[in-house]
## 1
Amino acid sequence: MDDIDCAAERIDAFNKVALQMVLARTSGPASSGVCKACGSLIEPERLRVTPHARHCTECAEELEAESLRKNRCGPR
Ligand SMILES: [Zn+2]
């Protein structure tokens, strides 16, 4: 696999994550306001931006980073 293929795969993976975020933002029931991962209250500012949020900012960032890592092409 050359660099162009690798870059194309990364863009594809990023687009998938971005699409999921858009879909999640525009669909689904409102959040319970409690993070599913750590059980703490989700920040009101976050709920205003993403009313369906299931995770607090900290956990959401971790989950996003995790999914980006999984989508990366090839082990490092
Ligand atoms: Zn959390």
Note: The pocket of zinc ion is lined by residues 35, 37-38, 40, 55-56, 58-59 (CB under 6 Å).
## 2
Amino acid sequence: MVVVGFPGSGKSTYLQSIGAHPISTDSVRLLLADDATDQSINARVFAAARYLVQQRLELRRPVTYLDATNLTRRDRRTWLELARAHDARVEALWFDVPLAVCKARNARRTRVVPEYVLDLMAARAIPPSLEEGFDEIKKCPPPSK
Ligand SMILES: Nc1ncnc2c1ncn2[C@@H]1O[C@H](COP(=O)(O)OP(=O)(O)O)[C@@H](O)[C@H]1O
Ligand SMILES: [Mg+2]
């Protein structure tokens, strides 16, 4: 499961609520640099996250959650290719939450992402699609009836 959403969209909260043990780039930052916000070591963070996902795929774990923003196709391609190389089904879990809501939640938490960073992310964000290789796109929260 490739989780997609802005900071503050509720990705980590949801994954915790379902008792998942996601591979989270923020957790890897904490492991490597004692700081979940350190963006200066992203190459190592993503290499380590990729290695962990690969280990889970080789172990044939039934579900692997990758918790990162994954807002662009380029961000997601790594995970799609890795899953495909292991013949794994790959779904996007898309936190389709309005930017204003994410900003408000972000402002209220301890680890605040600067608002201009959220605006930059929003400008680059592309919704996940079947066309880029996902087997399914699941919206979270699910569309209301
Ligand atoms: N469904 C929700 N409704 C209201 N607040 C939420 C919801 N999900 C998360 N939050 C709050 O929003 C903030 C960001 O959530 P978090 O799960 O850390 O987002 P992300 O991992 O996507 O950055 C947290 O303070 C959290 O308590
Ligand atoms: Mg998070």
Note: Residues 5, 7-13, 105, 109 surround adenosine-5'-diphosphate (ligand 1) (CB under 6 Å).
